[in-house]
Specification:
The protein is 26% helix and 12% strand. By secondary structure, it is of the alpha/beta class. It has a ten-stranded mixed β-sheet with strand order 1-2-3-5-4-6-7-8-9-10, with helices on both faces. The N terminus is likely disordered.
Length: 509
């Protein structure tokens, strides 16, 4: 237990050092015990450093005790001395901050792109699969709303007013998605064990007298880990050379062994039986068990190869749908990269039902068509809900919002009408308002591609999407740079957000 607690504390330190996640009160909440310890003056940086930090400000209500010194960022100088959680990209005190406002290195005064505060507290301080597990969440009721439901309005009709409210509001969104769309994702089973090598991650699960085994093949960029890793469903379709150049490993996840997208049966149902959950939920459950092994083996001193805090997930088309859902459900995943996921993925149901068409003259794949093609893309409950999506108190923008404040890069293809880039832009932009309210608007990116890109499905176009991918990797996986996402739809597939966003974006305290 002491070893596991040690890795949790270490994991929290790494997460808290990620500048992109410490812009808002990611290092503590505003509901805790008043008064963290004041930070001491930061050390001035070496070349490219900012000015020396002024003395740290005492923590506001809810901050934790002072953290240990942070490690210098990529620009080189020693980070500020111990400070209570949460500095921003420029070293300034976040809403629950304790770090000095100009501390450490980096062109904007921060402790280098990867610098930050001490290890105490983050949005998800214990690095758990579902941070809102202790929230009391009522059963969501049906609605009557042709717009994308207000992401800031709780089930009781009130709108959240504090950043710390997001934890339980996200839990409500998860409940709504499970109740009306995907079915419930079980948590960690009774026993999860496994191993980590340079070529594979092996997983063994036992629950209620049943057991399963599966593995993923791994390719690492070198031998001097720990390395971040991108788990690709079916291997993924991102350029392996680019990923390797960025110092990131890859893993090939055979998601269909966990559940068939047509029958919903597989290793997942071997453990739990037929629950009615979508195949995507089963795929998500499998990735969560992979992360369990990475965390536990690191805690036991047997995983020096793969960084559990640097896990990304990707896939294209039907596997992009899976990658999207997987990343939404597990809050330990640092970065989701769904590519061209279409209906059943990022495409907002309500927008799909308006039958928008693309430049190839084809309309968005309908919900009925997606249901017929592979019912496992959805839970059984969606069979009766797909004809009345305006009554669902959620939509795919809810899944996008479930990523916040973590990293999300939606890669789209605006030339293929069936994918409905307009639908994906609407969902991404609507949920980007949550990121904005939390003060981490750079943590989400939507890229619709260029009109001049080929129409080929699941082909990666380096000219238009190479830089967005590199930016996301450097911000959330290698942690070498601050987040720099942007919502960039193609002109030919830009949603009219005034028709879809319900409510206004609050100023969260």
């Amino acid at each position: 237990m002491a070893i596991r607690n040690s890795i949790i504390r270490s994991t929290s330190s790494l997460l808290c050092s990620l500048a992109a996640l410490t812009v808002w009160s990611a290092c503590g909440t505003d509901q805790g015990t008043p008064g963290g310890s004041a930070g001491t003056p930061a050390v001035a940086g070496s070349p490219n450093s900012g000015t020396a930090g002024s003395p740290g400000i005492a923590g506001a209500a809810g901050s934790s005790a002072a953290g240990a010194p942070a490690t210098a960022g990529a620009n080189g100088s020693t980070a500020g001395a111990p400070a209570v959680a949460g500095s921003s990209n420029n070293g300034g005190a976040a809403p629950i901050a304790g770090a000095g406002p100009t501390a450490g290195a980096g062109p904007s005064g921060g402790a280098g792109p990867a610098g930050g505060a001490g290890p105490t507290g983050t949005y998800n301080p214990d690095f758990v699969e579902f941070y809102g597990k202790d929230c009391v969440v009522a059963t969501p009721a049906a609605v009557d709303n042709a717009k994308l439901p207000d992401l800031f309005k709780s089930f009781d009709g009130t709108r959240i007013s504090k950043k710390s409210d997001w934890k339980c509001r996200r839990a409500e969104l998860k409940k709504a998605v499970e109740t009306f769309i995907h079915g419930e994702k079980p948590g960690r089973p009774e026993k999860v064990t496994g191993s980590v090598t340079a070529t594979s991650i092996k997983v063994h699960v036992e629950n209620a007298g049943k057991s399963i085994d599966f593995s993923v093949s791994v390719s690492l960029p070198g031998s001097a880990g720990p390395y971040p890793i991108i788990i690709g469903l079916g291997g993924g379709s991102l350029p392996a050379a680019l990923i390797k150049e960025e110092g990131v490993g890859t893993a090939n996840y055979n998601n269909n062994t966990l559940a068939s997208e047509t029958s919903r049966s597989g290793l997942f149902t071997d453990i739990y039986g037929s629950t009615g959950a979508s195949a995507q939920v089963a795929w998500a459950w499998g990735v969560s068990r992979i992360i369990d092994v990475l965390v536990d083996e690191k805690a036991a001193g047997r995983n020096s190869l793969i960084d559990p805090t640097g896990v990304g997930v990707t896939g294209c088309s039907r596997l992009g749908k899976g990658a999207f859902t997987i990343g939404a459900f597990d809050e330990r995943i640092a970065l989701g990269i769904p590519q061209e996921s279409g209906t059943g993925g990022v495409s907002a149901f309500r927008v799909v039902n308006t039958n928008p068409s693309g430049p190839n003259g084809k309309s968005a794949q309908t919900l009925d068509s997606a249901w017929t093609e592979a019912q496992g893309w959805f839970g059984t409950v969606f069979g009766s809900n797909r004809s009345k999506v305006n009554t669902i108190p959620a939509d795919t923008h809810s899944l996008v919002a479930m990523y916040a404040p973590r990293g999300l890069l939606v890669l789209d293809n605006s030339r293929i009408g069936e994918l409905c880039a307009t639908c994906q832009h609407a969902a991404s932009a609507a949920a980007a308002e949550v990121y904005k309210a939390l003060g981490v608007e750079k943590n989400i990116e939507y890229n619709g591609g260029n009109a001049s890109d080929p129409h080929n499905h699941c082909s990666f176009y380096t000219a238009s999407q190479g830089e967005p991918l590199r930016r996301a990797i450097r911000a959330f996986l290698t942690k070498k740079a601050p987040a720099d996402g942007r919502i960039a739809p193609a002109a030919i597939a830009t949603a009219d957000l005034t028709k879809w966003i319900d409510g206004t974006t609050p100023t969260l305290q």
